[in-house]
Amino acid sequence: MKELSFREFVECRQAENLRLIDVRESDEFAAVHVRGAELFPLSEIRAGELPAEDERVIAVICRSGGRSAMAAQIFEAAGFKECINVAGGTLAAVEAGEEHVERG
Prior knowledge:
Layout: E1 2-5, H1 6-13, E2 19-22, H2 26-31, E3 32-34, E4 38-39, H3 42-46, E5 58-61, H4 66-77, E6 83-87, H5 89-96, E7 101-103
Parallel strand pairs: 1-6, 2-4, 2-5, 5-6
Antiparallel strand pairs: 3-7
C-alpha cells in the first residue's frame, strides 16, 4: 500500500485520475468531506461490501489515516489495483484550506 500526504494527493489527484473513497461513517462524511470523495464506510467494507472497481487507482481517506489504511489493505487483499492511503486524512484536508472540503 502506497501512502501520500494530503498535499501530495492534491498534487497528483487529477494527473493520475485518482478515485477518492472516504471510509468514515455517514454522519462524519455529512459534517465535512474532501470535495469529490465517495462515501463507502469501513463498517460496510468489513462486512464484505466493496465498491465497484473501475480503471482508476483508489485513494482512501478517513479522519486521520488509521481506518483508511485498514480499508486499503482490505481492498488490496480483494484484488483491487494499487491503493493509496491518504495520511493525515480529512483533518489534513481541512488544515490545507476550505477550498478542499465541503461541509454539511
